[in-house]
Amino acid sequence: MNGQTIALLGIALCVLFCGTGSALALFKTGQVASGVLSEDGKKFAKVLILAVLPATQGIYGFVLAIIASGGVEAGMAAAEGLKILMATLPLTIVGFTSALFQGLTSVSAILAVAKDESISGKLILFPAMVETYAILALVISIMLL
User: Fold this and answer.
1) What is the secondary structure of the chain as a DSSP string?
2) Residue 95 structural domain
């Protein structure tokens, strides 16, 4: 396997895992948000913010792919391709897992908003804390590139 193929594999896996994690999490938050809104449509704005939070990991994967693809060249050495693959791994793994767990945390927050919408501002903190690790992984992956 040549370096270009190895690098493209790392980039593709990052986009695939980050996007899949976000899609699965958004599926779950969308389900719960739909149920809450069917009972009280006035909570839309508060529920929407919590429901879309897990989308960011997919965006981070896309951004890293654009940045990393600038280092991919035809005929590059396998070692250079391996460096790009390794640099994408932090976001690939943390992006996927943090999206899933952020989705679960957002689901809990959405259900709490269903009971008391006045605490929605406080509840956003919990899924945002999970987001922190995706941001840290993105920064590390960019630094490694």
Assistant:
1) --HHHHHHHHHHHHHHHHHHHHHHHHHHHHHHHHHHHHH-GGGHHHHHHHHHGGGHHHHHHHHHHHHHHTT--TT--HHHHHHHHHHHHHHHHHHHHHHHHHHHHHHHHHHHHHH-GGGHHHHTHHHHHHHHHHHHHHHHHHHH-
2) 3-144
Per-residue pLDDT tens over the stretch 54-102: 999 999 999 999 999 999 999 999 999 999 999 999 999 999 999 999 9
Number of separate domains in the chain: 1
Question: Which tokens in the block code for residue 53?
Answer: 């939070």
Least Cα distance to 14 among 133, 144, 138 occurs for 138
Count of C-beta atoms within a 10 Å radius of residue 139: 13
Q: What is the pTM of this model?
A: 0.92
| CATH value at residue 91 | 1.20.120.610
**Block residue for tokens 């060249």:** 73
One-letter amino acid of 40: D
